[in-house]
Amino acid sequence: MSRFLFPRWSNALLPTILVVGAVLPLYAVMFVAYGLSPKTLEVGYMPTQPVPYSHALHVGTLGIDCRYCHNTVEESGFAAVPPTQTCMNCHTQIHVQSPRLAPVRESYETGKPIEWVKVHKLADYAFFNHAAHVNRGVGCVECHGRIDQMEVVYRVAPLSMGWCLDCHRNPVDALRPPSEVTNMNFDQRRDMTLEQRKALRDRYDIHPSENCSTCHR
Prior knowledge:
Blueprint: H1 14-35, H2 38-41, H3 55-61, H4 66-69, H5 84-91, H6 102-110, H7 130-134, H8 140-144, H9 161-169, H10 188-191, H11 194-203, H12 212-215
């Protein structure tokens, strides 16, 4: 009877087993630390901006409509980042000496745009049209959350393909009157009946495509 539990050729596998055993825990740590981080998954991503702009103050307290700053959202696929002139429409008279607004004043004087950090990013291979959604009654809150309560903007939705498809397959729950798209306090699930939301779907002929070419062009 052989004295060996494993055949002799298995000795050749020993170096590979040792390397895998040493490296695998490192990959596991990296996956937990980086692969599951908010920066990677994006939900909860809250970058530091060059100017501490509070949406809670401007949108929530002062009631400034989203479209005052993001003024292309009803006409374009993109919600434009406001130019410095938009900020200075108010801040030539309000908090004119505030040190926190120094980058805004410098941008206004030099013409160099402020380098805002994008929070809601889509992959280059994905196409999303803001106008197509906003004009048919999909509110800002559906993708951006309660922006009117955020001191610092962060990402609340994954914006993944599966997440988008869930809405395309059942758009009724996301619909509200187009006049209420920027109203953060409006909740169509609370303030409208299912029949009313279905009526909006039929009125605007909302039957979102699930074809790949709709978003991947």
